[in-house]
Design goal:
Helix content is about 50%, strand content about 20%. The chain is built from 25 helices and 31 strands. The strands form 7 sheets. Strands 15, 16, 17, 18, 19, 20 and 21 form a 7-stranded mixed β-sheet that branches. A 5-stranded antiparallel β-sheet has the order 11-10-14-13-12, with helices on both faces. α11 packs parallel to α12. The longest helix has about 100 residues. The chain is flat and about 145 Å long. The two termini are about 110 Å apart.
Length: about 1000
């Protein structure tokens, strides 16, 4: 039987139920009569509800009106009582005698009842009761409210109570607080209210003879309020309420009528739907007959499809044999397993054999079997596919590597079938194993190369350190002119030799893949200044002008490898100086691209030298290559500098290139992608400390290095000792601790036999007695990223040999400052040769005096871009206070400021009697006054120089370089700024 169903107006109705449509129609007609009954019930209920609200509203209106009239009566009583108390408090009041207020007949016994003023006006004394009666009479004539003061022991007939008042007074004596009632007076409706009057001390003057005591009920005041206005208001509100409730009842009636009409309309629609349902039933019967015929055709088509499936399986088996891919399928209900021909062949199983799921799993290698079982479990329970490589042992005992894939088929959240494929990848795995072995062999060779490079670096740098160090010591002695010239030649040749060695070692690292970058914080402008200082003497010797120009858009505080940047630029500048006989060399830095987190900086070196022919440019960046052999003979060089520079630029994410014409000079340029430093990163704050008389231990296995360090420490008046191994160092440190004279700093060589510097540092930091010793590491085999590792161990400084004498001195003072400032381990970055250079610029103190907030922000951000830190004040007085507390290096002074302008502030700075710490501190005017004579006015006021607003970054940078004093390392026995100090 073929069953079917159809959705009819929101219900699923089977054809067997269609005969009940007539019953439904009769039921709908019955519902029409029911609707009428329901409508009458609703109207009656609605009427009851509206009537209830109406009765409640009328009652509420009457209650509110009653409360209002009662409150008015209470208010009048309070008014009368207050007037009574007031007049009683004063013992009566004298008023002029008039027709309305004649002489008080009730006070004839009072001598001073009637008096006359000096002006001749007659006054009579009015007692409180007399006054109150007059006020009540006046109030009644004006507002219709009656008032009456009365008592059970009345003096005069005017105060005698009526029957209602007498009853109320008796109730007061019984303790009742107030009496009120609606009644008629002379046919007019009134609301009567009465409250008692108690005896006060002042009342006893007139009523004491009646036997009253303080607190007794002496009488009362009754108030009668006319009810006419209140009743009229009550009638109006009642009428409005009746009309409102009637409208509400009518709206409900209309809504009910509309609802009944809509229901009837829906019943009519249902009748039409029944008719359509009967028509649909007839159509479905015809469709059943047609569908039966179609099913016969479908059965025939299915038979043809099964034949096609057999053909496709034959094709699939043939394809599997060619691709060596076998297929399999598992029915999760019956756990029946199906394999393709290729799967049987891979597992070396006869095709006549029927396999279970467990037998299929047993072909997997025992060590890989748990892995495949877990994968199958996840596929069955969670519908997760898998793709993995496992070993397989065939029925013939052959070990194979196979690639296994499985895809679950999930219906209604349940896995009903697993389908997969396996591929024999044994040949591929064998090839991969061979490739891996070859790779490991290559890596071992590279490792051997790296070790050879490290040993070469150590073996070369160690004697170079001796040559340069001994030359430095020699230059510190008294030499005649010829001897000093010879020593300078030795130092210059040593520097050149060290540069060539560095090039060769870096080239070797490139070939062995060992050239790396060290990503650290650095100040770009400090790095550029250091490069200029390094090559300035060479340019001066040839009479060339060396210009360093950094565009102000370039940020100073970046994250990258300043050492490699310095290496590229020195290569390019050395070449420019080498190939230029006259003119200039321009070192430029500009911003090529910027994002929120990084910048692309373009560096260029331009010269006015011999230039490069077009056909020679393509050979420039190749190893051991120059334009021609005559160039090599004339100028020297290995030809490796540009090759290394190209490699380094590309490692920094940039490019390198050249623009030149023969005879017209050259411009070499390169770009580098550098990260911006985080704004929130804390700044180094180390105060250098004097190292005189401080105990320092030298640890180095090389006698020459120990001699150089010993002599330098003697010049700086340090107490020092030296050892040649890590074991001796530990013993010496332990003895100094026992002798209560510990070594504060240990200068440790990295490359030592038996125990290297890294191991020695760990042992020192692990010893509770020695862990406070500050450690300085000196290495001739520096690798990128090592500084961070040594910082984690606990080293305070990391220097690469050969170490300049100035760098060593500054390093030791900084390390001493770290200790004395009681900074914990890891609280500041490790000191390196890069941080030593940057600290010089960070030490500059700049004071900005500017009263305009916007100008303050502009100047401070401009200084920050140039790599400086500054503090701002708002006027001249604040500038003087700051200069009294801090020895600033320079002051940028606005001229027009509130409270004290720049001219007055500068006068106080130059005044010898003022409290500023440095009366000669450079003061530079930064002012919008740019008329003729303004510059002279600033200079006459005592300022050193003048900048007109708007200030350009280039002009500000030049002004700071001009006036900020240089702060070279000053040795105890040397003159500061001596150019011969290495």
């Amino acid at each position: 039987m073929v069953s079917f169903s159809k959705v009819i107006p929101g219900k699923l109705i089977h054809p067997k139920t269609l005969g009940q449509c007539k019953i439904f129609r009769n039921k709908f007609k019955c519902r029409s009569s029911f609707l009428k009954n329901y409508a009458w019930a609703f109207i009656i209920g609605w009427t009851v509800i509206i009537g209830g609200f109406l009765l409640y509203g009328i009652s509420h209106i009457r209650t509110v009106q009653g409360d209002m009239v009662k409150n008015e009566a209470r208010a009048n009583f309070s008014k009368d009582q207050a007037l009574r108390f007031w007049s009683t408090m004063h013992g009566g009041v004298y008023v002029p005698v008039t027709d309305e207020t004649p002489v008080n007949p009730y006070l004839s016994h009072v001598k001073e009842r009637d008096i006359e003023t000096p002006g001749g006006k007659r006054l009579t004394l009015m007692n409180p009761a007399y006054m109150l009666r007059q006020v009540m009479e006046k109030y009644e004539s004006l507002y219709g409210v009656r008032g009456h003061i009365t008592s059970l022991r009345y003096f005069r007939s005017e105060t005698a109570p009526d029957e209602w008042e007498r009853s109320a007074l008796k109730k007061f004596e019984a303790g009742v607080k107030e009496i009120s009632e609606s009644t008629e007076i002379n046919g007019v409706p009134y609301f009567r209210y009465m409250s008692p009057m108690t005896t006060k001390k002042a009342c006893l003057q007139c009523h004491g003879h009646q036997g009253y005591q303080v607190g007794d009920v002496r009488g009362g005041v009754s108030v009668s309020v006319p009810l006419g206005p209140y009743l009229a208001r009550q009638d109006r509100q009642t009428l409005i309420l009746i009309i409102s409730m009637g409208l509400l009842w009518w709206i409900g009636f209309l809504g009910l009528s509309w609802a009944i009409r809509e229901v009837k309309h829906r019943l009519q629609e249902q009748d039409r739907a029944e008719a359509e349902l009967q028509s649909a039933y007839d159509k479905m019967e015809r469709r059943v007959r047609e569908r039966t015929s179609d099913l016969i055709h479908e059965i025939e088509e299915r038979k043809r499809a099964e034949e096609a499936l057999e053909n496709s399986e034959t094709f699939l088996n043939a394809t599997g044999r060619v691709a060596k891919v076998g297929g399999w399928e598992v029915d999760m209900d019956t756990l029946d397993v199906r394999w393709t021909e290729e799967t049987y062949r891979i597992n070396q199983v006869p095709m006549t054999r029927k396999l279970s799921l467990a037998e299929m799993i047993n072909f997997i290698h025992p060590e890989d079997r748990p892995q495949i079982k877990r994968a199958l479990q996840r596929a069955r329970d969670h519908g997760e596919p898998y793709d993995m490589e496992v070993r397989r042992i065939t029925a013939g005992g052959t070990l194979l590597w196979t690639h296994n894939i499985c895809k679950p088929y999930v219906v209604d959240g349940k896995t009903v079938k697993l389908t997969g494929a396996i591929q024999d990848i044994t040949d591929r795995k064998m090839a991969a194993d061979a490739l891996r072995e070859a790779k490991e062999a290559a890596e071992a060779a590279n490792c051997a190369k790296g070790e050879f490079l490290a040993n070469m670096s150590h073996e070369i740098r160690t004697p170079m350190n001796g040559v340069i160090g001994m030359t430095s010591l020699l230059l510190d002695t008294d030499l005649n002119t010829v001897q000093r010239e010879f020593a300078e030649t030795i130092r210059s040749s040593s520097d050149s030799l060290l540069s060539i060695i560095n090039h060769i070692l870096d080239f070797s690292k490139i070939k062995s893949g060992k050239l790396d970058l060290e990503i650290i914080d650095f100040d770009l402008r400090v790095t550029m200044e250091e490069i200029t200082d390094l090559v300035a003497l060479k340019a001066q010797d040839k009479g060339l002008e060396l210009v360093n120009m950094i565009e102000h858009e370039v940020p100073s505080h970046l994250l990258g490898d300043p050492g490699r940047l310095r290496q590229i630029l020195i290569n390019l500048v050395d070449n420019a100086i080498k190939f230029t006989d006259e003119g200039e060399v321009l070192l430029g830095v500009s911003l090529e691209d910027e994002s929120p987190t990084q910048v692309t900086v373009r560096f260029s070196v331009s010269d006015t030298g011999i230039g490069i022919p077009q056909n020679g440019m393509e050979r420039l960046f190749k190893s051991f290559s120059q334009v021609d052999s005559s160039t090599t003979r004339r100028f020297g060089g290995t030809g490796l500098g540009l090759t290394i520079s190209k490699q380094l630029a590309e490692m920094m994410g940039g490019r390198i290139g050249v623009e030149s014409a023969e005879g017209n000079g050259s411009t070499f340029w390169f770009t580098a992608v550098l990260e911006k430093q985080a704004e929130s990163k804390s700044e180094r704050k180390i105060v250098p400390e004097d190292i005189r008389n401080k105990r320092i231990l030298i640890v180095d296995d090389n006698a020459t290095n120990r001699f150089i360090l010993r002599e330098q420490l003697k010049q700086w008046e340090c107490r020092n000792a030296e050892v040649s191994s890590g074991t001796e160092a530990l013993a010496a440190l332990a003895r100094s601790h026992v002798d209560k004279d510990p070594f504060e700093i240990a200068v440790i060589d990295m490359q030592m036999p038996e125990m290297d510097g890294e191991t020695l540092g760990k042992k020192i930091k692990d010893d509770p007695d020695l862990k406070d010793t500050r450690l300085v590491l000196m290495t001739s085999m520096g690798e990128r990223g090592e500084a961070k590792r040594f910082e984690e161990i606990g080293f305070a400084a990391y220097l690469t040999k050969p170490v300049k004498k100035s760098h060593l001195y500054e390093c030791l003072t900084m390390v001493r400052g770290v200790k004395n400032n009681a900074l914990g381990e890891g609280s500041i970055p490790i000191i390196t040769r890069h941080s030593l250079a940057e600290d010089q610029k960070c030490k500059v103190r700049i004071l900005l005096a500017e009263d305009n907030i916007i100008n303050q922000k502009v100047a401070l951000n401009m200084l920050k871009n140039l790599g400086y830190r500054a503090e701002a004040v708002a006027n001249g007085k604040e500038a003087l206070k700051a200069l009294e507390m801090i020895p600033y290096d320079i002051v940028l002074m606005d001229c027009q400021m509130t409270e004290m302008n720049g001219y007055e502030a500068t006068g106080e700075i130059r005044n010898p009697t003022s409290k500023v710490l440095n009366h000669r501190v450079p003061v530079v005017a930064m002012t919008a006054n740019a008329m003729n004579g303004d510059r002279e006015k600033c200079l006459n006021a005592g300022m050193d120089d003048y900048l007109s607003k708007p200030v350009k970054p280039q002009e500000l940078s030049k002004m700071l370089e001009k006036w900020i004093p240089k702060q070279p390392v000053c040795y105890l026995d040397e003159t500061p700024g001596d150019p011969n100090v290495p």
